[in-house]
From TrEMBL, chain B:
Residue ranges occupied by any Tubulin/FtsZ 2-layer sandwich domain in the UniProt entry: 279-414
Cofactor: Mg(2+)
Organism: Lonchura striata
The protein's assembly and partners: Dimer of alpha and beta chains. A typical microtubule is a hollow water-filled tube with an outer diameter of 25 nm and an inner diameter of 15 nM. Alpha-beta heterodimers associate head-to-tail to form protofilaments running lengthwise along the microtubule wall with the beta-tubulin subunit facing the microtubule plus end conferring a structural polarity. Microtubules usually have 13 protofilaments but different protofilament numbers can be found in some organisms and specialized cells.
Name of the featured protein: Tubulin epsilon chain
SUPFAM superfamilies noted in UniProt: Tubulin C-terminal domain-like, Tubulin nucleotide-binding domain-like
One GO BP annotation of this record: microtubule-based process
Keyword GTP-binding: yes
InterPro entries reported in the protein's UniProt record: Epsilon_tubulin, Tub_FtsZ_C, Tubulin, Tubulin/FtsZ_2-layer-sand-dom, Tubulin/FtsZ_GTPase_sf, Tubulin_C, Tubulin_CS, Tubulin_FtsZ_GTPase
UniProt GO molecular function: GTP binding
Family the entry assigns: Belongs to the tubulin family.
Span of domain Tubulin/FtsZ GTPase: 55-277
Gene3D superfamilies (alphabetical): Helix hairpin bin, Tubulin/FtsZ, GTPase domain
Length: 449, 475
């Protein structure tokens, strides 16, 4: 099944380009470390999922590029084409001349309706090129105006036009100390709206990725390109083909569906966090060896201690004792999960013992531990890492950051600052209040796990 | 890509405007080596086929034929505009873009606003429409004028009004040169306060400029060059005050150095809209992020660096110095003290080879010494543009919405009241058709209200921080 990617705004387009680039370079790489047959199967599956074989010398990404001003899209298209290994279709982008001005209301209420037809036509065309449509993957930031506002509108349109397809929104959370002054307003508006139309939100926080670049990748002068490449690597580690348990032979044909099924049992809980190990500069790879037990142990501790990367993990945090009173006696820093998905890639993957992830004390009591935990595997190594493990988690990972954003937005809202800018385009105080209510509900739900 | 139109009004406005066009051409020439008319150029220039004479058609793609500025030059005296038309920039302007008269406004706001406004209204609207028609997507009008005189102040604010009426969706950024205390125009307080009312009500953003600051910057540079410290040689074209490398280089006049600074401000302001970068900052984003309440739209600007030394390698330490300088008073374009007042919002527009980590490091470093309003503690808007200005490897423009503009306005009000109490020179204004005492009263009231809004914000400073309680959800 194929996934259609919708890249929205500057961030969405910049990241999207890095994602396709990472996917392409991975399948072209010779570091698969598996049998040729396996490798071929992997390549074919990836190509079917993300690329199209239009009459073109190189694979064409299954993507729609949307932005309200032209500079980023034109850069994205040319960088892709210059790689010589893949490109975007020349008819799959939509842009206007003037951006959204970091104004969510402008993106949602003005640009959205105005350009709905043109954008949805492009999406329809891409969807029709797929033999079987597996769903939509949208990439956006929530701090600006286009990715956030127009992105929320487009997600709604996707839901209306494709009621039975899966929609996964990849949302980038901005740095805490400002990229955009009204970023907290834009974030609150975006998240609350996405909650109503999307199936799940997969989140990356710039602050976290920045730390990974600084401490694990040893990059001295970190640029947005570096950040985007780490994000692309992490996304690739989730969406490159894998065998799902019980799926028989052959690579999974419904990744988005299986992701939703594994991780989103209840519509109130849609926020997914992503962790991926190991992460290190390419130059260090030849000198490092990894063991599955070691990786699994670290990943599990990262889950329960809510660590953002494999350095600085708090090993003191332990799951609560099974006989203790539930809910009220949980140790303070323990990260409770609803469901987890672990994805393993590389040598000897079938021998890995994942029992520690099935420990019931990690989870809420609603699901059987067997249902709360799933694993996808492939012996084919990803992106030059001999062994790598990714974790997609529906847990309290994002609770604190979400609470922080809502808190700051509320603080600003109480002073009524900037509200006239949103009112200009039709978003009034009542609309804001509705969004705050939605998110406070989400925060409350996750807090009381 | 959008287009912007510059409306330069009065002697000051036109002299600054002239420097802007000169330096804009220089900047694009440095970036655009192939002579192809690209989108970046189109933001300020039309490409006209002049082979068939002055009424040539616009060429939208391909080689540059003849560049025409998207500008309107308005002055009620002919001297300044005529000089521009005889100088090296004459080909950049179209005779159809000029509106001049002979007798000037006599340093009288009422003459500029009421008499000339009325008289030239149709003409101005028509020419504005023409200019707008040449634009594919007009985003912003930049008005350049001074506040203390008659034409720039009076007619300039009349045009501001017109722009709001005729083009309500297009942003209005106003660069206003405020008079200093020792201004030799006695009635400058009247003109300025009358103009302020218009700016309060009709401008989206105002960048106030004070000659004193520009003068100090010029002096600082002179000292730097003449001190010959460590045999350091300065790259001529990197001076924020210089026209080196541009068309006008050989004929520098006294105010040119100061006006070049303002021209550079406008170039840096629009750089991220014209050129690519990893985090773009468009003009509509500036207005969105820096104006929390409609009338508080006065932005303190500072530019760094003021010059580059000729040696090529600039270590990271220098980069951090650039950020520190942006927050020091001798890089500001008005006399104010933001560090000891309250920041409502702050924007940093970086150009050149600077990455997000450099930006973050410096924000973390500088934050503790700056006071931000309680509801906007992380109120930073940032932009990264890849193309540096001419002569530099990187530069920074900081725009702050800060209560430090309050003293400037209070002083203006005091100077106004000194004259008004004695009714000095009032008759020159009241004898103009359409001018009444109430105009003065409304103007001073508008200014007082503005000052009061700043006062209220200042009052919140230093008190205990009590965050409003969050919504409670029934579990």
């Amino acid at each position: 099944m194929s996934i259609v990617t919708v890249q929205l705004g500057q961030c969405g387009n910049q990241i999207g380009q890095e994602v396709f680039s990472a996917l392409c370079s991975d399948i072209r790489g010779t570091h698969g470390l598996c049998s040729e047959k396996e490798n071929e199967s992997y390549q074919d599956s990836c190509k079917e999922r993300f690329f199209c074989d239009e009459e073109s010398a190189v694979p064409v990404a299954r993507a729609v590029l949307v932005d309200m001003e032209p500079k980023v899209i034109s850069q994205t298209l040319s960088v892709a084409a210059r790689s010589g290994h893949w490109k975007y279709s020349s008819h799959s982008h939509f842009c206007q001349k003037q951006g959204s001005g970091n104004n969510w209301a402008n993106g949602y209420s003005v640009h959205g309706p105005r350009h709905k037809e043109a954008i949805m036509n492009l999406v329809q065309k891409e969807a029709e090129k797929c033999d079987r449509l597996g769903g939509f993957f949208t990439i956006m930031s929530m701090a600006g105006g286009t990715g956030s506002g127009l992105g929320a509108f487009v997600t709604q349109c996707l839901r209306d036009a494709f009621p039975t397809s899966f929609i996964l929104n990849h949302v980038v959370w901005p740095y805490g100390t400002g990229e955009v002054i009204v970023q907290n307003y834009n974030s609150v508006l975006t998240l609350s709206h996405l909650y109503h139309s999307s199936d799940a939100l997969l989140v990356h926080e710039n602050d976290v990725i920045h730390k990974i670049c600084a401490q694990l990748m040893n990059i001295k002068q970190i640029s947005f390109r570096d950040v985007n490449q780490v994000i692309a690597h992490q996304l690739g580690s989730v969406f490159q083909p894998t065998h799902t348990a019980g799926g028989g032979s052959g690579y999974s044909r419904n990744p988005l569906g299986e992701l939703m099924e594994s991780l989103v049992p209840h519509p109130e809980f849609r926020m997914l966090g992503l962790r991926n190990i190991p992460q290190m500069p390419e130059s260090s790879l030849p000198y490092s060896t990894f063991s599955w037990p070691g990786l699994i142990k670290h990943l599990r501790q990262m889950l329960i201690a809510n660590a953002q990367m494999e350095e600085g993990i708090d090993w003191q945090v332990r799951p609560p004792h099974p006989s203790s009173i539930p809910s009220t006696n949980k140790p303070l820093h323990f990260n409770t999960s609803i469901a987890n998905l672990v994805i393993l890639r590389g040598k000897d993957v079938h021998s890995v013992d994942l029992g520690s992830f099935q420990d019931p004390s990690l989870y809420t009591s609603w699901l059987n531990p067997q249902d709360a935990f799933n694993a996808w595997k492939t012996p084919r190594a990803f992106n030059k890492y001999e062994k790598s493990a990714a974790l997609v988690s529906n847990s309290q990972f994002l609770l604190k950051p979400l609470d922080s954003i809502v808190g700051k937005a509320w603080n600003m809202f109480a002073s009524k600052a900037y509200l006239h800018q949103y009112a200009k385009f039709g978003i009034q105080e009542e609309d804001f209040l509705d969004c705050f209510t939605t998110l406070e509900q989400v925060i409350s739900s996750y807090t009381n796990l | 890509m959008t287009q912007s139109v510059v409306v330069q009004v009065g002697q000051c406005g036109n002299q600054v405007g002239c420097r802007f066009w000169d330096l804009a051409l220089r900047e694009h020439a440095a970036v655009n080596k192939k002579g192809i008319y690209d989108e970046a150029l189109s933001s300020f220039f039309r490409n006209v086929d002049t082979r068939s004479g002055d009424n040539g058609r616009d060429i939208y793609k391909g080689k540059i034929c003849s560049l025409k500025a998207r500008a309107l030059l308005i002055d009620m005296e002919e001297g300044v505009v005529n000089e521009i038309l005889q100088g090296p920039l004459r080909d950049v302007f179209d005779s159809k873009q000029l509106i001049t008269d002979v007798s000037g406004s006599g340093n009288n706001w009422a003459v500029g606003h009421k008499i000339y406004g009325c008289q030239y209204r149709e003409n101005i609207v028509e020419k504005l429409r023409k200019t707008a028609e040449h634009c594919d997507c007009l985003q912003c009008f930049f008005i350049i004028h001074s506040m203390g005189g008659g034409t720039g102040s009076g007619l300039g604010t009349f045009v501001l009004n017109l722009l709001e009426e005729e083009f309500p969706e297009v942003y209005r950024f106003v660069t206003s040169v405020y008079p200093s205390g020792e201004d030799d125009v006695i009635t400058s307080p009247y003109n300025s306060v009358l103009a302020m009312k218009e700016l309060n009500e009709h401008a989206d953003c105002v960048l106030p400029i004070e000659n004193e600051s520009l003068f100090e910057i010029v002096n600082k540079i002179h000292q730097m060059i003449n001190s010959g410290k460590l045999g350091a040689t300065v790259k001529q074209n990197s001076l924020v005050t210089s026209s080196a490398g541009s068309a006008k280089a050989l004929q520098e006049k006294p105010f040119d150095a100061m006006n070049n600074i303002v021209a550079n401000l406008l170039l840096n302001l629009t750089s991220s809209a014209r050129f690519e970068g990893s985090l773009n900052m468009d003009l509509n984003e500036i207005s969105m992020n820096l104006v929390p309440f409609p009338r508080l739209h006065y932005l303190v600007s500072s530019l760094t660096p003021l010059y580059t030394l000729a040696d090529v390698n600039v270590p990271s330490r220098r980069l951090d110095q650039m950020f520190s300088d942006a927050f020091s008073r001798d890089h500001q374009l008005i006399q104010a003290d933001p560090k000891h007042s309250l920041y409502l919002a702050c924007a940093l527009l970086v150009r050149g080879n600077v990455q997000v980590s450099d930006l973050r490091r410096n924000i973390e470093r500088l934050k503790p010494s700056l006071h931000f309003v309680s509801w906007n503690q992380e109120g930073w808007k940032t932009g990264l543009c890849s193309v540096p200005p001419v002569g530099h490897s990187h530069s920074l423009l900081a725009l702050a919405n800060n209560t430090c503009v309050k003293p400037t306005f209070i002083e203006l009000k005091d100077r106004f009241m000194k004259l008004y109490k004695k009714k000095a020179h009032l008759h020159h204004y009241l004898q103009i058709d359409g001018m009444e005492q109430s105009c003065f009263l409304e103007a001073i009231s508008s200014l007082s209200d503005l000052i009061e809004e700043y006062n209220e914000l200042d009052a919140t400073r230093g008190g205990p921080r009590i965050d409003p309680s969050r919504l409670k959800i029934a579990v």
